[in-house]
Amino acid sequence: MYIYNVTIQLAWGIHENWLQWMKTKHIPEVMATGCFTDFRFVRVLEMDETEGPTYATQYFAASKEDYDRYIEHHATALRKDALDVWGNQFVGFRSLMQVVN
Predict the structure, then answer these.
(1) Distance CA 53, CA 76 (A)
(2) CA-to-CA distance for 59 and 73, rounded, in angstroms?
(3) pLDDT exceeds 90 at position 35
(4) Bridge partners of residue 98, in order along the sequence
(5) Which residues pair with 55 in a beta bridge?
(6) How many alpha carbons lie under 13 Å from residue 41 in its C-beta half-sphere?
(7) pLDDT digits (tens, 9 = 90+) for 40-98
(8) CA separation (Å) from 82 to 27, 40, 86, 93?
């Protein structure tokens, strides 16, 4: 099992609209790719929220091939969509993790 983690810090000015967009558009579009079996959408606590809140979305892939398929065929368009909608009002980083237990 692999976890594709996307952590985003966003500006307070887009917070509520971004939450709705994530729940109703972005996460459903990522899941519709068929590359992931499940997801978790969480708020990161104990962070400096002066600039805005931080969220993490963890997408669960059954295999590295499923993750690779997402990166190769879907990630670029979905990332572009986020930039087109929210511009420079967020920063983020991505990581791939492997479940070891």
Answers:
(1) 24
(2) 16
(3) yes
(4) 2
(5) 8, 43
(6) 12
(7) 999 999 988 998 999 999 999 999 999 999 999 999 999 999 999 999 999 999 999 99
(8) 11, 19, 6, 13
Which token pair is 60?
Answer: 């669960």
In which order are the strands placed within the sheet that holds 90-98?
38-43, 54-61, 2-10, 90-98
**Alpha helices, DSSP H, located in 15-100:** 15-21, 27-32, 64-70, 76-86
Residue 99 has a pLDDT of: 94
Contact assessment for residue 90 and residue 14, using Cβ atoms and an 8 Å cutoff = yes
| Tokens 């729940």 sit on residue | 23
Closest CA to 4 of 77, 76, 67, 63: 67
